[in-house]
Amino acid sequence: MSDDSLRDRIDTSKPHSARFWNYFVGGKDNYEVDREIGDQIKSIFPGLVDVAVTSRRFLGRAVEYLAGEQGVRQFLDVGTGLPTADNTHEVAQRVAPDARIVYVDNDPIVLAHANALLTSTKEGRTAYLDADLYDPEAVLKAAAGTLDLSRPVGLMILNTLGHVADHEQARELVRRLMAGLPAGSHLVISDSTATSEGMIAASEAYNASGAVPYHVRTVAEIAGFFEGLELVEPGVVRVPEWRPETSGDAGSGAAVDAYCGVGRKP
């Protein structure tokens, strides 16, 4: 795709979730419209910054666990977002240089920065797919060009499923993705939750900004994504409370309105 056609697809007149999140984690790939709604939401609910930061740390811990303790050497990261520090491939390949990672997003702003995600160790490999969460079978077929889908895969869906308004549809999309992966694969999910008035107000303000809406869910709904899987201890918990020892998140989970979990396909 040419740079001109990419630019034509990027709307800088409205906030964008990837750029908005990038602003919250200290990145530079955002526009004034994203910073304006970000500052507005900070004034409503400053805790959303903690959600962004601790969710990013959870990604690192989850990948380290899968690559280090479970021997997973393949990762499918759906809803990649904008590259920052410690992306999935960087964490995985620090633990296992031969790890292979496929990133998936269908957003032009992410595609424009995809080259930053395509670095790799010489032993491993990374790839980027311009593909859609709403077509899981096409995602899996394209990912098979890089990953061996007869071997376990770590499926990462972080801060993405809120874009699917209907919870049952979101569950079905997750089921279809996991159905194409073998036993021993793992599902990793984190998302913001409707667990405080502040988070609910922040979500409403964001959705009223003209951005593509993002829906916060209950903890029970987050847990529902893991139906049929074996939950890894400590189960579905606030993101700072999932094996926090390695990232300094221990004890910081009380005020964070985001939950996560890791489940193994038996």
From TrEMBL:
<protein>
    <submittedName>
        <fullName>S-adenosyl methyltransferase</fullName>
    </submittedName>
</protein>
<keyword id="KW-0808">Transferase</keyword>
<dbReference type="InterPro" id="IPR006764">
    <property type="entry name" value="SAM_dep_MeTrfase_SAV2177_type"/>
</dbReference>
<dbReference type="Pfam" id="PF04672">
    <property type="entry name" value="Methyltransf_19"/>
</dbReference>
<dbReference type="GO" id="GO:0032259">
    <property type="term" value="P:methylation"/>
</dbReference>
<dbReference type="GO" id="GO:0008168">
    <property type="term" value="F:methyltransferase activity"/>
</dbReference>
<keyword id="KW-0489">Methyltransferase</keyword>
<dbReference type="InterPro" id="IPR029063">
    <property type="entry name" value="SAM-dependent_MTases_sf"/>
</dbReference>
